[in-house]
Write a structure and sequence with these properties.
CATH topology of the largest domain: Immunoglobulin-like
Helix content: 25-40%
Number of domains: 2
Strand content: 15-25%
Number of strands: 10
Largest sheet: 6 strands, antiparallel
Order of helices and strands: HHHHEEHHEEEEEEEE
CATH architecture of the largest domain: Sandwich
Shape: elongated
Radius of gyration: 25 Å
Oligomer: single chain
Strand order of the largest sheet: 3-2-5-6-8-9
CATH class of the largest domain: Mainly Beta
């Protein structure tokens, strides 16, 4: 356990003991528990830090001095405010340490389809408590929006992300793009990727819960990501409902009119060339494999 962690534990224990000695009423219990939860969260985050922290020892001395300066005759609200300030300071310093210790992963995306432009791709770095979707379960509201309109913002907002980003603009067939995400390494470090093939009603290509922690610095892993049906919109492929250049339809519609209403592997578009009278698509828009080829590289 490094110097920062030892000093933090001593400081936070002093703070909690000081609160107990000063007394207070039940109205402050919730505030105290919030502070204790923040302490626990900081200690959990410190588990991923393995850096010489002697450069911040002077700041830690200042924190101890502030703790020692808290008088026993001050009110409990003053104690709570003071300790909250101390935790704010520790969290700021911890964030700086995490930035130093963060691992960066470069994500290279290649559109492998014949005629399905891919909307801006959501890239989410997270732990194993999050999954963007599950086969056989209804799509979230954010995933519905992504799969019908191509907009990844709500989908990313739903995630408990360690870091997230989107690719820059539409990726045309055969085109590529590259982005980076960073986080402190952990055994369950995982990746979720999702993008809409825009000449569809509610298809998306991607993966969720892809563990990338095993990658060594400089090492890469690759995958061709499958195409899923979000199950939120009937696959009419009509000019009114497909947002891509083949039709120019509305895209997202909050009404869920697919009778299934759950995520499955996509069976492929049918198209007007196959006899679907409502379809604005032709044979060039078909797919029967993955849409997005991804290379993930842990940077050195």
């Amino acid at each position: 356990m490094n110097l920062f962690r030892l000093t933090l534990r001593a400081s936070t224990l002093s703070a909690i003991l000081l609160l107990a000695a000063c007394g207070g009423d039940d109205d402050n219990d919730d505030d105290i528990r919030v502070l204790e939860d923040r302490v626990d969260a900081i200690e959990t985050r410190l588990g991923g830090i393995d850096t010489d922290t002697t450069s911040i020892s002077a700041s830690l001395d200042a924190i101890d001095a502030r703790l020692a300066a808290i008088e026993s005759d001050t009110t409990i609200s003053d104690e709570l405010a003071s300790i909250a300030d101390l935790l704010n300071d520790i969290e700021d310093r911890l964030a700086a340490l995490e930035n130093v210790n963060a691992e960066t992963y470069q994500i290279t995306l290649v559109n492998a389809t014949a005629n399905q432009p891919l909307a801006p791709t959501a890239i989410i770095l997270h732990d194993d408590s999050y999954y963007g979707w599950q086969i056989g379960s209804p799509a979230s509201a954010g995933l519905e929006n992504l799969a019908e309109s191509g907009n990844p913002a709500d989908f990313i907002a739903e995630a408990d992300a360690l870091d997230s980003t989107t690719s820059a603009g539409i990726i045309p067939p055969g085109g590529s793009g590259s982005v980076s995400v960073s986080a402190v390494w952990r055994e369950d470090l995982s990746l979720t990727i999702a993008s809409m093939p825009v000449n569809t009603n509610d298809a998306f290509t991607g993966t969720t819960g892809w563990n990338i922690a095993q990658l060594a610095p400089g090492e890469s892993t690759r995958a061709l990501l499958p195409i899923y049906d979000a199950g939120t919109e009937a696959n009419t492929e009509s000019i009114d409902s497909v947002p891509g250049p083949a039709a120019g339809g509305e895209g997202f519609n909050a009404a869920r009119d697919d009778v299934a209403d759950y995520v499955v592997r996509h069976s492929g578009v049918v198209t007007a060339d196959d006899g679907l009278s409502t379809s604005a698509l032709d044979e060039s828009h078909r797919f029967d494999q993955g849409a997005l080829h991804v290379t993930v590289t842990r940077m050195e």
